[in-house]
Every structure is written in structure tokens, then in C-alpha cells.
Design goal:
binds magnesium ion, seven-stranded parallel sheet, 317 residues, binds guanosine-5'-triphosphate
Length: 317
């Protein structure tokens, strides 16, 4: 207990080694250490602004985040970055790429960058990402920028609960705007047209404006920013706009945070219940047999679940 207390104390004081260790634990190492740490730090979280940055692969999210980090550092803030990286589990190359793009911050003790693999988490990716964000928050990093590719369900779920969401688009991807429409456009608080030096930026902005004009009257229209992240151009006004969004985000922020709390509670409950079922009521072999029975119509799934639940011990019952 004493050891875990000092560990938590060091994390809360911003010690980056304690922070990195806690992150490894929540990413799938020791689940009891992770739970203990998160229980201890939770009261010290909820202070940081969480900014989601999402968009198509290669749209310049990491480059842009590297620039935003510099902008927020210039305002005296300690900045956390969580890059949820779909390809890293397979190659590791993309993580390296992000490190290179954010290299200028590698030696800054007031910047902490964590790349997360999307596979191999104990529990889900969304759970692991929320936990890592909490750890950064507890260690005093604020804002925390979360990068995800805006394609998969998991990734959309992750940014959906950020306090502010920036969606990055690039010219010359006309069809992509259609593809992104489902799910992503609704969650944008702000659009970034990156690689704006390229031909087609005007056209993209016009398309985007036309599409946003279809939104029901009374809903607020997200602002559109143009950037050339590779050259660091026009990133300061973007940082201003994000700051303003976060400051003015009152009611919406409360809703997002409640959504995040709800998702975390239900996900964790589901995880823990399944663990308990596995421990107490269902071996992997028995599970396979039940699956066969259901597939071959010897049993219906309702009866199967009822049978399993009857064998699970519930405290206080
Ligand atoms: N022309 C141009 N290239 C840019 C700009 N911003 C970034 N890039 C380049 O676009 C490429 C992809 O940039 P990243 O920042 O890795 O993009 P990403 O969206 O993080 O990519 P993934 O994480 O792989 O989805 C890199 O070669 C960048 O140098 C820009 O404003 N203009
Ligand atoms: Mg990236």
C-alpha cells in the first residue's frame, strides 16, 4: 500500500516516469495496479480540457497537433497528447512517424506524448484511452489533445466525448467528405482544412459550407479554419478558436462529460461482469459448447444467458 501511495503521489506531482508506468498498467499490464491508481487519482481529474482531433489518414493531424502543442506551450500550458494509432499494432512505423513529427517537443518536460496501439488492450480501446487521459489530467497536463483517425467506430466513440472536437479535412478528397458525413460531421465543433495551399481548398470550403447550411436552424455552425500545418501557418488563430470554444462550451461540455461518464461506467461494468462470468460461471470450453448449441438451434440465446447468470454470484444477493 505504501509503495502504491508514493507512486500515486509522484504521479500527481507530475513525475513523468510514474506517469509512464501507470499508463503501461492501464494499457494492459496489471489490471489491479491500474484500478488502484485510477481510483486514487480520479478525484484529481476533470480539470484538463480534452480536445479531439480527427480526420482521414494522412490529413496532417499529427503535424497539426505538433504545431498546436507549440502554440499552447507558448501560452504557458503543459500539454498532453494521446495518439490513438490504428496501424501501430501491426508495424510500429506510424508511432515512430508521430515521434518524428512531434520531435521538437520530445525533450520538453511539459509535453507528454503517448501513442496507443488499438489492439491488445485489456478491455476496450475507448476505456484505455479515457484512462490515459485521466492520468495525464491528474499529472497536471492541460489541454490534452487526442488524435484518432476518423474512420472506425471505436475512434469516433473516443473523440465524441472530448470537450471540443476538430475535424481535419484536406482538399482533393471530395468523396471523403461524403464518407466522413456519417457520424463525424455531427461531432465537429470546428473544421480544419489542412494542406490549404493545395488546389481545391476553396472548393472544399464551399462544399463544406453548403453541407453545413443544411443543418437545422438554430444549431450553431462550426467555424472553418484553413491551415498549412507543415509550415506552421495559421495555427495560432486555430489555437485561439479552440480556447474560445472550450471557454464558451458550458452546457454542451456538461453533456459531453456526462456522456463520457456514462460510457465509462457501462463499459467497465460490462467488462467486469464478463470477467466474473468467466471466472465463476463459464469456462472457455463451456462457452464454445453453448455457441454450438445456439448455432445449431439446440438452445436459444435467452435460455443460455439465463443459465449463465444464475451461476454468477452477485454480492449482497
Ligand atoms: N502539403 C502539405 N502537407 C502537409 C501539411 N500538413 C502535413 N502535411 C504532410 O502530410 C503527411 C501526413 O501528415 P501527418 O501529420 O502524419 O498526418 P496524420 O493525419 O497524422 O496521419 P495518420 O496519423 O497516419 O492518419 C506528412 O508528410 C506531412 O508532412 C500541409 O499543410 N501541407
Ligand atoms: Mg498521425
Amino acid at each position: 500500500v505504501a509503495a502504491s501511495l508514493t507512486r500515486v503521489g509522484r504521479l500527481l506531482s507530475g513525475d513523468v516516469r510514474a506517469l509512464a508506468r501507470a499508463m503501461s498498467a492501464v494499457e494492459g499490464g496489471s489490471s489491479s495496479e491500474a484500478a488502484e491508481t485510477l481510483q486514487a487519482v480520479y478525484p484529481r481529474t476533470g480539470r484538463a480540457d480534452v480536445i479531439g482531433v480527427t480526420g482521414a489518414p494522412g490529413s496532417g493531424k499529427s503535424t497539426l497537433i505538433g504545431r498546436l502543442v507549440a502554440a499552447f506551450r507558448g501560452r504557458g500550458r503543459r500539454v498532453g497528447v494521446v495518439a490513438v494509432d490504428p496501424s501501430s499494432a501491426f508495424s510500429g512505423g506510424a508511432i515512430l512517424g508521430d515521434r518524428v513529427r512531434m520531435q521538437e517537443h520530445a525533450t520538453d518536460p511539459d509535453v507528454f506524448i503517448r501513442s496507443m496501439a488499438t489492439r491488445g488492450h485489456l478491455g476496450g480501446l475507448a476505456r484505455a484511452t479515457s484512462d490515459v487521459v485521466d492520468l495525464l489530467d491528474a499529472a497536471g497536463f492541460d489541454p490534452i489533445l487526442v488524435e484518432t483517425v476518423g474512420v472506425g467506430q471505436d475512434e469516433v466513440e473516443i473523440v465524441r466525448t472530448a470537450d471540443a472536437v476538430a475535424v481535419v479535412l484536406v482538399p482533393g478528397m471530395g468523396d471523403d467528405i461524403q464518407a466522413l458525413k456519417a457520424g463525424i460531421l455531427e461531432i465537429a465543433d470546428l473544421f480544419v482544412i489542412n494542406k490549404a495551399e493545395r488546389e481545391g481548398a476553396d472548393r472544399l470550403q464551399a462544399d463544406l459550407e453548403a453541407m453545413l447550411a443544411l443543418a437545422p436552424a438554430g444549431t450553431s455552425r462550426p467555424p472553418i479554419h484553413r491551415t498549412v500545418a507543415a509550415r506552421g501557418e495559421v495555427v495560432e488563430p486555430l489555437a485561439d478558436a479552440l480556447t474560445a470554444l472550450l471557454l464558451s462550451g458550458g452546457p454542451r461540455r456538461a453533456t459531453r462529460r456526462r456522456e463520457r461518464a456514462r460510457a465509462r461506467l457501462l463499459t467497465l461494468l460490462g467488462e467486469r461482469l464478463l470477467e466474473r462470468v468467466g471466472d465463476e460461471a463459464l469456462t472457455a470450453r463451456a462457452l464454445d459448447r453453448l455457441i454450438d448449441d445456439i448455432a445449431e438451434r439446440r438452445m436459444d440465446p435467452y435460455t443460455a444467458v439465463q443459465g449463465i447468470l444464475e451461476r454468477v454470484r452477485v454480492e449482497g444477493r
